[in-house]
Design a protein that fits this description.
The complex is a heterodimer of chains A (about 475) and B (about 190).
Chain A lengths: L1 H11 L10 H29 L12 H33 L6 H23 L13 H23 L8 H21 L7 H36 L6 H14 L15 H13 L1 H14 L11 H23 L2 H7 L4 H30 L6 H33 L6 H7 L1 H30 L8
Chain B lengths: L8 H20 L1 H5 L8 E2 L8 E2 L5 H12 L14 H6 L41 H9 L1 H4 L9 H4 L2 H13 L15
Antiparallel strand pairs in B: 1-2
The chains are: A mainly alpha (about 475), B mainly alpha (about 190).
C-alpha cells in the first residue's frame, strides 16, 4: 500500500484540486535567498583574509573572528534552515492534501525569523559571542529561535494531523523528525551548556554541533530530496522499505557520535570509542538513502541534461555519499591524527552544508518558486550557469582544502617542521580557495537573481 | 512497530524520540556521572604520582582577558588541547621539555570551554609563560612584525587599550599552568 501511495502522491499528485496560499513559503524563500547572497559576500571576504591578512584588519567589527561566526550562522540559519523551512511550508500541505494549518502563524514565524537574523548580524559584529561553535548567538536571540521553532513545528504538525491521506510519505517523517530532534538538540547546545563547564560543556557543545548537521540539516534536507527527486523526474521512489531503513537507523545512530570531535582530546577514552563505533554505523542510513535515490533515477539519468533542479539534486546526493563517507573515516583514530584540526575539515564541512544540503535547497527553490508564483523561471540558461559555477567552484574549494589539509596534517606530525612553515606552505591552497569562492559566489548571484526576477519580475508567462 | 509509524503520526513521533533519547542520554548525561575527572579540578602535590600543581579559578583580571579572547574569536583558529599524540606533546613543549597532555580535570573552571576545532594557528593550551608581555604587545599590533608569513589578523584596538591588553595577557600567561610543567619555573613575564 505504501508503495502505491508514493507512486500516486509523488509522481502524479493531482494539482489544482486544492489552491494553496503559500504566503509563508514565499516569505521564507525570498528572505533566505537574500541572505544567501548577503552572507556570500562575507564568505568571500573571509577567504580573502586568508590571502591578505591585513585586509580591513584595523576595524574591530570586520576582523576575522567576528565575520566567521556571522558567515557560519548566516549561512546555516539565515539561508539554509530558512530555505528548508520555506520548502517544508510548500511541501507538507501538498503531501497531506490540505492547506497549511495557519498562514497567519506562518507569516508571523517568517517575520520573527528575520528579526532573529538581523539581531544576529548586529550582535555578532559587536563581538557578543557566547563562545560556542554554532551557538554563538546571545541567549535572548536563542529564546526567539526556540519560539520561532515551536511556531513552525505547531504549524507543520497540525497540518499533518489534519491530513487527508492516512499514509505518510517519507518526507513527512523526516520533517517531523527534524522538528522534534531539533528542539532537543538546540536546547542542549544553547541552554544546557549554560549550566556546565569544561569537558562536560564541550561534550554537550559537540553533541549539538554534530547533530545540528545530523539531526537538523540532514532530515530536513533529505525530506526535500525525497520529495523533489521523484517530483522533478516524474518517477516514483524506488523503495519504501529502504527509506524506512534509512530513517529509523538515522534516528537511532546519529546522536551517539558527538565526542568524535574530541578524539585524542581531553575527554574519556571510552566515550571516544563509542563515538567512533557509532560514526561507522552512520554508513547504514547514508547508504540506504543514497541507494534508494540512485535507484529511483535508474533509466532516468538522461533527464539531468535538461533539468537544472535534477542536476543540483543528484549532485547533492553524490556529495552526501562522499561527505558521509569522509565523516566515519575521520573518526578512525589513525586518520583523525592526520586530518583533525587541519584545513581538511572546512573542506569536509562545506561539502556537507553547501555541496549536499544547499544543493537540495537550491533545487527545491528552483522547482517551488515558479509554481508558487505561477510563472515560468526567469532564465533556464542562467540557472544552468548557477549550477556549473557552484559545482566547479565547490569542487575546487573542497578538493584543494582536502589536499592542503592532509599535507598540513603530515607536516604537523613531523615536529622538526616549525609551525609557521606549515602556514606558509598552505598559501597557494588559500589562493585557490579564494578563487573557488568567487566562482561559488557567482553561482549564488546567478541563483539569487534568477529567483528574485522570477518572483518579483512581471513575466506574463503561464504557469509551468 | 515501524510499519505502524507509516499511518500514525503520534506513533512515528514517539519512536523517533525514544530512539533519539537512548543515545542522547547515554552520551550526554551519563558520562559526567561515570567519569568524575570531568568535574574534579586537577590537584597533585606528590611528585611521585606525576606532574604536580593545582587548577584554581581565574582572578578578575584573567576573567576579563578571557572574555576578550572569546569576543574576538581567537578560539576559531587556536585550540587549547594538547592531544594524546606524540607530535602534540613535542610541538607544544618548550626548551626541551614536552608539554603535558591536557586532561579533563584541568578545564573544570572553563566556561565557555575553549578546546576549539581548528588550528589555523598553533595550539595555546600551554602558551602561558612562553613569551613576555612586550612580545605579545608587538605581536598583537602586527603579527607579521615578529612572525614572518603569519596570517593572524592585527588587533590594534586591543593594544591601544591598555586595560584590555593587560587583561588579555594576564589570561594568556596563565594558560596551561595549572599543571606546573616547567622544572625550573622558568616562565617569561
Amino acid at each position: 500500500m505504501q508503495l502505491q501511495f508514493s507512486r500516486a502522491e509523488v509522481a502524479k499528485a493531482p494539482e489544482g484540486a486544492l489552491i494553496h496560499d503559500d504566503a509563508t513559503a514565499k516569505w521564507f524563500l525570498v528572505s533566505s535567498v537574500a541572505y544567501f547572497f548577503i552572507v556570500g559576500i562575507i564568505a568571500v571576504t573571509i577567504a580573502a583574509k586568508f590571502v591578505w591578512p591585513d585586509l580591513m584588519g584595523t576595524m574591530s567589527w570586520l576582523t576575522y573572528g567576528r565575520l566567521r561566526p556571522l558567515h557560519v550562522n548566516g549561512m546555516l540559519f539565515g539561508w539554509l534552515l530558512a530555505a528548508d523551512m520555506g520548502l517544508a511550508y510548500y511541501v507538507i500541505p501538498r503531501l497531506c492534501g490540505v492547506k497549511l494549518w495557519s498562514e497567519k502563524l506562518g507569516l508571523a514565524t517568517a517575520a520573527l525569523w528575520n528579526v532573529i537574523i538581523l539581531g544576529a548580524v548586529v550582535t555578532l559584529l559587536a563581538g557578543q559571542n557566547q563562545g560556542w561553535e554554532y551557538a554563538e548567538l546571545p541567549w535572548y536571540l536563542d529564546v526567539l529561535v526556540v519560539i520561532a521553532w515551536i511556531m513552525f513545528g505547531v504549524n507543520v504538525l497540525m497540518t499533518v494531523a489534519s491530513r487527508k491521506h492516512q499514509a505518510m510519505y517519507v518526507t513527512i517523517w523526516y520533517t517531523m523528525g527534524c522538528i522534534l530532534w531539533t528542539a532537543f538538540v538546540y536546547l542542549t547546545g544553547n541552554f544546557a551548556t549554560l549550566f556546565t563547564t569544561g569537558t562536560n560543556q564541550a561534550n554537550l557543545n559537540w553533541m549539538y554541533v554534530h547533530n545540528a548537521v545530523g539531526l537538523i540539516f540532514t532530515p530536513i534536507g533529505l525530506a526535500i530530496a525525497y520529495y523533489f527527486i521523484p517530483r522533478a523526474s516524474n518517477t516514483p521512489l524506488h523503495s519504501h522499505k529502504l527509506s524506512m531503513v534509512g530513517f529509523w537507523s538515522l534516528a537511532f545512530v546519529y546522536v551517539w557520535t558527538g565526542a568524535h570531535h574530541m578524539l585524542h582530546g581531553p575527554i574519556s577514552q571510552w566515550l571516544q570509542t563509542i563515538a567512533i563505533a557509532f560514526s561507522l554505523m552512520l554508513l547504514i542510513p547514508v547508504w540506504a538513502v543514497v541507494y534508494n535515490l540512485f535507484a529511483t533515477m535508474k533509466g532516468q539519468w538522461h533527464q539531468l541534461r535538461e533539468s537544472v533542479p535534477l542536476k543540483f539534486l543528484m549532485s547533492g546526493v553524490v556529495f552526501y555519499l562522499l561527505t558521509c563517507f569522509q565523516g566515519p573515516m575521520h573518526s578512525l583514530r589513525t586518520v583523525n591524527a592526520i586530518v583533525s584540526k587541519t584545513d581538511w575539515i572546512p573542506g569536509h564541512a562545506h561539502m556537507a552544508v553547501l555541496g549536499c544540503f544547499s544543493f537540495f535547497a537550491i533545487a527545491g527553490t528552483y522547482v517551488a518558486v515558479p509554481k508558487i508564483w505561477g510563472k515560468a523561471l526567469h532564465s533556464q540558461s542562467l540557472a544552468n550557469w548557477s549550477y556549473w559555477m557552484l559545482m566547479i567552484g565547490g569542487l575546487g574549494f573542497f578538493t584543494t582544502l582536502w589536499l592542503g589539509g592532509f599535507w598540513q596534517g603530515w607536516q604537523w606530525n613531523n615536529v622538526s617542521i616549525p609551525f609557521i612553515d606549515t602556514v606558509i606552505a598552505l598559501k597557494p591552497i588559500w589562493i585557490v580557495r579564494f578563487v573557488s569562492g568567487i566562482m561559488m559566489f557567482a553561482g549564488i548571484v546567478f541563483f539569487a537573481y534568477n529567483i528574485m526576477a522570477t518572483a518579483l519580475g512581471d513575466h506574463e508567462e503561464a504557469a509551468v | 512497530m515501524f510499519r505502524k509509524a507509516d499511518n500514525n503520526a503520534l506513533w512515528a513521533i514517539g519512536i523517533s524520540l525514544v530512539l533519539f533519547f537512548i543515545g542522547g542520554i547515554l552520551t550526554t548525561v551519563v558520562p559526567p556521572l561515570v567519569d568524575t575527572s570531568w568535574s574534579k579540578p586537577f590537584e597533585n602535590h606528590d611528585p611521585a604520582k606525576g606532574i604536580t600543581g593545582k587548577v584554581v579559578p581565574l582572578n578578575d583580571l584573567q576573567k576579563k582577558g578571557r572574555a576578550i579572547y572569546v569576543r574576538e574569536g581567537c578560539w576559531y583558529c587556536h585550540t587549547q588541547q594538547v592531544r594524546t599524540l606524540l607530535a602534540d606533546t613535542k610541538r607544544y613543549g618548550w626548551r626541551g621539555v614536552d608539554a603535558p597532555i591536557s586532561t579533563p580535570d584541568e578545564f573544570v573552571f572553563d566556561d565557555p570551554h575553549m578546546f576549539g576545532t581548528k588550528r589555523t594557528g598553533p595550539d595555546l593550551a600551554r602558551i602561558g609563560g612562553k613569551y613576555d608581555t612586550q612580545w605579545h604587545k608587538t605581536h598583537f599590533k602586527n603579527p607579521r612584525d615578529l612572525v614572518k608569513g603569519s596570517i593572524m589578523p592585527p588587533f590594534p584596538w586591543i593594544v591601544n587599550n591598555p586595560e584590555e591588553f593587560t587583561a588579555l595577557v594576564a589570561y594568556m600567561q596563565n594558560l596551561g599552568r595549572g599543571k606546573d610543567w616547567r622544572p625550573a619555573n622558568d616562565y617569561e613575564k
